[in-house]
Amino acid sequence: MATQKPSRNFSAEVTGLVKTLRSEAPDCLAAGVVDMATGMLLAYETVDTHPPEVLDLLAGATLDLFQGRTVVMIEDVFKERRGVTGDQHYFQEILVNSDNLTHLFVRMTEQQDVVAVIVCRKSVNVGMLFAQARRVIKDHRL
User: Fold this and answer.
1) For domain 10-80+88-139, is the CATH number 3.40.50.720?
2) How far apart (Å, rounded) are the C-alpha atoms in residues 30 and 47?
3) Domain map of the chain by residue range?
4) Cβ contacts of 104 within 8 Å, gap of 6 or more
5) 62-71 own/partner pairs: CB under 8 Å, 24+ apart
6) How many CB atoms lie under 10 A from the CB of residue 115?
7) In the sheet where 101-107 sits, what is the strand order?
8) In the 8-state DSSP scheme, what is residue 90?
């Protein structure tokens, strides 16, 4: 008889995902998980301290990036033109570079309203960042 691994609760899964991203993404300075359905930052870990207002804005910015009015319109046009009828969102990953940082936003595979956020030094190898983030997210089913 095979033994099953006991399922962890959602909060523990989110915390585990953040910790793993923070430790395994190259040059990672911060990682977090945003629930776009509620607009909340569910968990985060960072090497620096940030004002709560900045962390609250991160959740809102993530929502705008993936589900802002214009983005949803673009997704709808692409779906219509390609004959896609499912509910899956078109945009799955977004990379944003600022003056000193690289920000990677990745939708979770099974829960499309949950997004992992990874912030790294601008010098990060972007290919390695994507590879590690995808591997970690694949291993942490939310």
Assistant:
1) no
2) 6
3) 10-80+88-139
4) 25, 93, 94, 95, 96, 117, 118, 119, 120, 129, 130, 133
5) 62/34, 62/36, 62/105, 62/115, 62/117, 63/34, 63/36, 63/39, 65/94, 65/96, 65/105, 66/36, 66/91, 66/94, 66/105, 66/107, 66/115, 67/36
6) 25
7) 40-46, 28-35, 114-121, 101-107, 93-97
8) S
Give 91-120 pLDDT, tens digit per residue: 899 999 999 999 999 999 888 899 999 999
The residues pairing with 118 across neighbouring beta strands, listed in sequence order, are: 31, 104
Residues 6 or more apart whose CB falls under 8 angstroms from that of 22 comprise 28, 30, 31, 45
Secondary structure (3-state) at 63: helix
Amino acid making up residue 97: N
As a whole number, mean pLDDT of residues 70-80 equals 91
pTM of the predicted structure, to 2 decimals: 0.88
Q: Yes or no: say if 44 and 32 are a contact pair by the CB < 8 Å rule.
A: yes
Token pair belonging to 136 = 């970690």
What pLDDT sits at residue 8? 62
